[in-house]
Amino acid sequence: MSPKEILPVFTEASYHLSPWSGQTISGIENEAVKHSYQLQIYADTEGAPCRDNLPEVVIATSGKSDWNINMVAALENAGKRIVLAGLEAENFGEHISGAAFNRKDSVEIIVRYFYSCGRKKIAFFGIDKNSTNDMLRLDAFEQMLTTMGKADPSRDIFFVENIIEECYNRFSAHINSYDAVICPNDVVACY
Q: Is there a contact between 101 and 84 (Cβ–Cβ < 8 Å)?
């Protein structure tokens, strides 16, 4: 039996501990096994690939914008072909591949749905400024509300500054001003 080919996955260390990372890595691993690849996880905080002899194609996944930018640049400098998992590849250029849920479209669909139900006072609760995915959703939210005629959607956005409880306390002081709430992910929504 020949040894399995290695499929390297680079992930930021704190993201690697998140439930989203676990689901992403599990999906990658399931597909890798089907094609006789063995996953090798590289979890770090620096955004620079290890010095191992890596194959031409590598996977990168994280939730932090600065880590993503640094890692993609480092992998490109190493001459690797990059597949982003859970990140929208178009933000990194045409030469980067990726598999991700279209966050922009999903937010647009949710806003349109709320408007169709007469819910026009929408809050966006639980945004993490360090999350690439949250920031993509935020951009779509602001664009959609502006398109729908809302003069200043920034007042309806509630960021997680330190802990989600503080964000919730700021939001709950204004809760009666809203008839709908959008959350960036299921963990925030369950809070």
A: no
Residue 176: helix, strand or coil by DSSP?
Answer: helix
- Where are the extended beta strands (E) located within the chain? 5-12, 37-44, 57-61, 81-85, 97-99, 122-127, 157-159, 180-182
Q: What is the pTM of this model?
A: 0.62
Residue whose structure tokens are 């959703």: 137
Q: What angle do CA 137, 123, 108 make, to 5 degrees?
A: 40
Question: pLDDT tens, 9-54?
Answer: 888 877 777 776 777 888 889 988 999 999 888 887 565 666 667 8
How far is the C-alpha of 125 from the C-alpha of 34, rounded, in Å? 39
In tens, the pLDDT along 102-133 reads: 778 889 999 999 999 999 999 999 999 888 78
Residues 6+ away with beta carbon under 8 Å from 155: none
Query: Rounded to the nearest 5°, which phi and psi values hold at 169?
Result: -65, -40
Q: CA-to-CA distance for 145 and 120, rounded, in angstroms?
A: 9
* Gap between the terminal Cα atoms of the chain: 49
CA distances from 23 to 29, 30, 68, 107 (A): 10, 11, 18, 21
